[in-house]
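Quick review question:
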């Protein structure tokens, strides 16, 4: 080793030492066809790729990795691509959420164990983006995120389609007999027509857009369509930028500060974004010893209107959003509400982003003075049925159901729901409230997206398209309706009111009061708690058992207890 060529990069601890393995590591690079000039005295850039043919949202990441490499080479870095597990929302059972924490560990340990000075994170589908950010936060070396981008808008006949908001809407119409089998098959072949993630403001789009305001991605990352050449340009720019970030020692902990997370919560409400973002932001923040209590989300909800007119709460799709100005235009419109001195991976402050942005379509991106919805898209509920909190996306709910009292119709688990929901003899009326138990982090396990409980066929045929639904599950960010999710404590826990609610009980939902209550006498509730028969404890093996043992509840991000750092 020539001591005059030694640098202070992290990789030098692997490559520039007198041990034999240092010599062998360079021999390994040589064996791959790299000339020593490619890597000697240069920062090593990891390209963390979640590409998989089982994850259609991420199918373009192979090509984007090549664009990242160009940027790294241009900036004088040495790029090395490596795979991590990929989480596909459509294929994984019972839910990709079960494996988000596992993927975050894969990301963290792949970074930690290898000679990497900085990392470019390639993600797209719902859980891949938070998993990447969680792992990067824990590893805490310079990191920048590049997502796959939204798909092109679907189209059936003359109608734009958004996955999977419109697939859910048309499924109801198909069950109700309003469209036929041929229509349903045509929609299936028309709704997904390019690489990329869902093109509505679902979880993937929400987390991609929030990565901009959080500071972990370059401007434009959240909205540039997957097939747009500018997606490759931003990937290349990210490769160039990560080399610069290494010299500036710009790590995730310096970017994702308390104020940056507050900006992201405000951005979440302005977008009318996914309920899942509350869980994911909490999980990412927890890796950095930052606490985001649910009342903080509700506080900002009351002061932040929804200004983006996007499905499922509005009418437009991600393509329209990008052409209107994208997340930068949203930042411009809500800048009076933000901590504008926060700086992201671009090196620009929030105030800088706001100053150079413009809103080119105020039908898609509205203003604080003329919002789509007067307060944030998500509300936090608490009460005797949810003492530790529950979430509703009231911007996508039916106004006449937001303050509603009804009779509970209870399903013990998802199998029970599937078996009985369409029974002709099911005693169900439009004013009743569907409740699903045992669908939370431990109970399912994994907290699947079962919260969008199907409306019984007989109600659909009678013209009903929405009723109040409550569960301890999650729901897809693409879903809509008067759906209460993340009810905590979950029903699998013995102290959960959800565990003792019965069919015939009266439940009250009141958005104005931010309350969710079980209207049963306290003495009766205490009696039911005494009669709970705890489930038989299983002693299995493998990852699922690890998950059930260590997963936290929704307000703590459903992360593992041993990965979340306590606030200082």
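Suggested answer, residue by residue:
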């Amino acid at each position: 080793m020539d001591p005059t060529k030694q640098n202070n990069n992290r990789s030098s601890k692997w490559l520039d030492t007198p041990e034999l393995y240092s010599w062998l590591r360079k021999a390994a690079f040589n064996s791959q066809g790299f000339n020593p000039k490619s890597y000697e005295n240069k920062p090593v850039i990891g390209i963390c790729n979640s590409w998989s043919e089982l994850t259609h949202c991420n199918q373009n990441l192979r090509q984007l990795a090549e664009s990242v490499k160009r940027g790294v080479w241009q900036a004088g870095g040495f790029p090395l691509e490596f795979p991590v597990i990929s989480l596909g929302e459509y294929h994984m059972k019972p839910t990709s959420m079960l494996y988000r924490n596992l993927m975050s560990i894969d990301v963290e340990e792949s970074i930690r164990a290898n000679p990497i000075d900085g990392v470019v994170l390639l993600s797209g589908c719902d859980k891949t983006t938070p998993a990447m950010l969680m792992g990067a936060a824990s590893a805490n070396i310079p990191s920048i995120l590049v997502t796959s981008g939204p798909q092109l808008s679907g189209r059936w006949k003359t109608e734009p389609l958004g996955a999977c908001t419109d697939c859910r809407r048309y499924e109801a119409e198909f069950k109700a007999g309003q469209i036929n089998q041929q229509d349903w098959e045509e929609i299936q072949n028309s709704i997904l027509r390019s690489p990329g993630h869902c093109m509505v403001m679902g979880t993937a789009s929400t987390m991609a857009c929030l990565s901009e305001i959080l500071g972990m991605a370059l401007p434009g990352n959240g909205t540039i369509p997957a097939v747009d050449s500018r997606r490759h340009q931003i990937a290349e720019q990210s490769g160039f930028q990560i080399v610069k970030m290494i010299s500036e020692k710009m790590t995730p902990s310096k970017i994702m500060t308390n104020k940056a997370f507050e900006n992201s919560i405000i951005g979440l409400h302005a977008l009318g974004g996914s309920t899942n973002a509350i869980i994911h932001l909490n999980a990412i923040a927890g890796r950095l010893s930052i606490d985001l209590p649910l009342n903080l989300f509700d506080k900002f909800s009351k002061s932040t209107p929804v200004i983006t007119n996007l499905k499922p709460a509005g009418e437009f799709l991600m393509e329209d959003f990008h052409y209107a100005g994208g997340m930068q235009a949203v930042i411009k419109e809500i800048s009076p509400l933000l901590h504008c001195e926060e700086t992201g991976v671009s090196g620009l402050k929030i105030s800088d982003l706001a100053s150079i942005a413009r809103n080119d379509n105020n039908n898609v991106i509205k203003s604080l003075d003329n919002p789509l919805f007067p307060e944030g898209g998500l509300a936090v509920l608490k009460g005797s049925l949810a003492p530790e909190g529950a979430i509703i996306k009231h911007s996508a709910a039916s106004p006449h159901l937001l303050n509603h009292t009804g009779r509970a119709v209870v399903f013990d688990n998802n199998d029970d729901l599937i078996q009985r929901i369409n029974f002709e003899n099911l005693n169900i009326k439009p004013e009743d409230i569907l409740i699903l138990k045992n669908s939370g982090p431990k109970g399912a396990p994994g907290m699947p997206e079962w919260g969008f409980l199907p409306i019984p066929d007989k109600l659909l045929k009678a013209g009903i398209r929405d009723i109040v639904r409550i569960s301890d599950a999650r729901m897809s960010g693409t879903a809509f309706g008067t759906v209460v999710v993340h009810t905590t404590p979950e029903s699998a826990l013995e102290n959960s009111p959800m565990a003792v609610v019965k069919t015939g009980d009266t439940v009250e939902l009141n958005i104005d009061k931010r309350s969710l209550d079980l209207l049963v006498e306290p003495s009766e509730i205490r009696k039911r708690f005494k009669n709970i028969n705890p489930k038989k404890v299983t002693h299995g093996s493998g990852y699922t058992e690890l998950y059930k043992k260590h997963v936290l509840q929704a307000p703590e991000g459903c992360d593992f207890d041993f990965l979340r750092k306590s606030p200082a």
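Why it works: The chain is about 35% helix and 15% strand. The chain has three domains: 42-152+194-356, 154-188, 379-556.
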